[in-house]
Write a structure and sequence with these properties.
- The protein is an alpha+beta fold.
- The protein has one domain.
- Helix content is 30%, strand content 17%.
- The chain has a two-stranded antiparallel sheet with strand order 1-2. The chain has a two-stranded antiparallel ribbon with strand order 3-4. The chain has a two-stranded antiparallel sheet with strand order 5-6.
- The protein is globular and about 40 Å long.
- The two termini are 18 Å apart.
- 16% of the residues are buried.
């Protein structure tokens, strides 16, 4: 569980501000709410799973996540969503058909 708006930034511990996250992503995010888009260098808000639709910012490219917006690209880069470990897990999950997940997320 991770705070979308970090507690140190005044984010409350309420359902509307909590999201499931693996420990890797939670630690990488830390207290950040913004990151640089690696394409433009512009500082943008990280993806908010409680307020934004996944499929508007990301798409699957086999076992990698591809960012289709500045927010998507910055989030992928900041959280290292395409780390080797993530790709290996997705590859294993594809064997029984659990990757990619069905439908828009």
């Amino acid at each position: 569980m991770d705070h979308v708006v970090p507690e140190v930034a005044g984010g409350p511990t309420v359902l509307a501000n909590l999201a499931l996250a693996c420990i890797h992503c939670s630690l990488r995010k830390g207290a950040r709410q913004m990151a640089r888009d690696p394409r433009t260098g512009r500082l943008v808000r990280l993806f908010n799973p409680r307020a934004q639709a996944w499929n508007l910012h990301f798409r699957w490219a086999d076992c990698r996540v591809a960012g289709i917006t500045a927010t998507g690209r910055a989030t992928i880069h900041a959280l290292a969503l395409n780390s080797l470990e993530h790709q290996i897990i997705r590859s294993f999950e594809s064997v029984p058909g659990r990757h990619p997940p069905p439908g828009p997320v």
